[in-house]
Amino acid sequence: MSARFALPELTLPATGPGTLTIAAAAAGDARDSWLRAAVAQAAPAAAVHHLDCRLRLGGPWAGLADYLQALLPQIDAAAPDLLQRHRYELAQAVPSLRSRFPLSEASLTDASPVKERVRSYPVDRAYRLLHGLIELLDEWLPQAGRRQVLVLHHFDETSLLMRRFFHDLVRRRLAALPLDLVVAVAPANALDVAAKFDAGTLQHIEAALAPGSAAPDMAALRAQAQALEEQVNRAMGRADNLLPRLIDLLDSLGEHAQAQRWRSATLALYNHYGLYEDALFFGEPILADLDEIDQGERRFGRWNIVSGLFNAYAALGRPEDALAVVRDEAMAKISEPNDLISIYYTMAMLYCRFLPRRDFALAEEYLHKSMALIDVVTLPEAEKHYLAVFNLNGVAFIRFQQGRIAEAAELCREGYERLEKHLGASEYRLHRSVLLYNIAQVYSATRAYDEAIAYYSQAMELDPRYSEYYNERGGVYLKVGRLDEAVRDFHEAIRLSAPYFEVWTNLGQAYRRMGNATAAVEAYSHALDIEPAAALARIGRAEAHAQLGQVDAALADYGIALTRDPADAQLWSNRAVLLYEAGRVTESLHDLDEAVQRAPSLPDLYENRAIALASLQRHEEAQRDRDYALHLQAAAA
């Protein structure tokens, strides 16, 4: 009997590096009580935060949003500039902060009216926010005054976003922070959860506890649901994190139709913010009741819901699912002309952009169907011009894919001029900037770099807070050797966004070309801290280390790069040169053998191998390589 109630001891340090503990027990009141008591005993001096990480109750940011909310008063008092630097990430994770950090001060993708939002965020945009918040914690926690313990309740029921946040936090910073994570999961999930963490060591404890929680008081739930719905209605746009709890309460009360209504709102919100996995978590259950929802009083119509599902499927690389939902739930069931304009456009994008087998003719046919309807529907003239240009931009995309570059650019130009002529200066600014951006991309692809820079600059005048514009224009400056301007653009891109590895890699490239290898190493290192698999940053840092004479560091980076891509002959060759210069000729020869095996038609490899062979007194083999290099050069002449 006593063994049944003997619970494992939780050990947490008072000082030193952060730790990770997987605490496995059946979910329920008993597990919650055990962990609260165990953590209180193990860390009596720490600041302990018990965080409910369930996606279905707290949404994509479940757990982390509560922790950030708890930290805000302290950070605001001691380091308000830190909040300002991370205001965008904070406003995304903690919706109540949007009155203080309004998204209207962000790019047009955030600030445009709903009907003018023509650009969806890429799926990795949400991951940038995570890295920005990790860097906020990295700067704040060492000065917070108390060690922090986060108990992550129901971590095996959390969102993909939160799993990624805590995985990256552990990988990037846990060993350097006064922070302990206690991850609560069901025993069946413990090994899988532990395997996903890139932690040097972790503690694993397991308790045999009774599952389940006390039965809820239905009257109390009803009162909570009513109060929460009133709060959401009052604070729409600043209450994203309350919607999942409201949906769960309504389902528990049997008010399924009302729950579906709020699922529709949640699908739209999470889609807009680029939280596509979570949009589907809440959006897919709507499909079972879509016919009933579409016939009664509802938050959104059928096409609003279907287009939201399409958007999420497409962003997540699931084009077949996107096609199925649009074909079966929209094309087959909607006859409203205003909706069909968008439906035909969406089908066009499926066939020219998303599906693995492209059908440009069919895509263009759908675009022409859409444009034909624009002339007959009852809409404001400004909106008709916008829709026509939107469809012509789809045609431009097809022309670009067909290699008809000049036609693509001209269609975008004509569209921009049409909007300028027929719309007010404040209308559809996002779409205008996208058209200019598309023209810039066309010119960049055809190496008309001066024209590309000019159109990027025009796009940035309309949308001066969109980080990617600066990163891409900086990339063009880099190509034409205007390195000071490239560096300025990359720094502005970094200032305007949560961190992303691509812009730090580009900054490293610019510094390396400027001969500033020290700054290049710093930039590449930041890129690799965010994304260790970033090949260009890894190779660039290896070359910058070599320029600084940091041979061991360069060799280490080349070794990692070759582990990830052993088929790259140039990597083998680069490391071989470094090894040779370090006097490690036998190892250099090995790498040159590997390079020749992978690229047997490159004469430089044979010339380099001849030098290594000669250094090892293997002169006959060296001469054969020299002769073969001359043969290859003659054949290529």
From TrEMBL:
TM annotation in the entry: none
Annotated keywords: Repeat, TPR repeat
TPR repeats, residue ranges: 433-466, 467-500, 501-534
Matching InterPro entries: TPR-like_helical_dom_sf (IPR011990), TPR_rpt (IPR019734), Ycf3 (IPR050498)
Protein name according to UniProt: Tetratricopeptide repeat protein
Organism the protein comes from: Tahibacter aquaticus
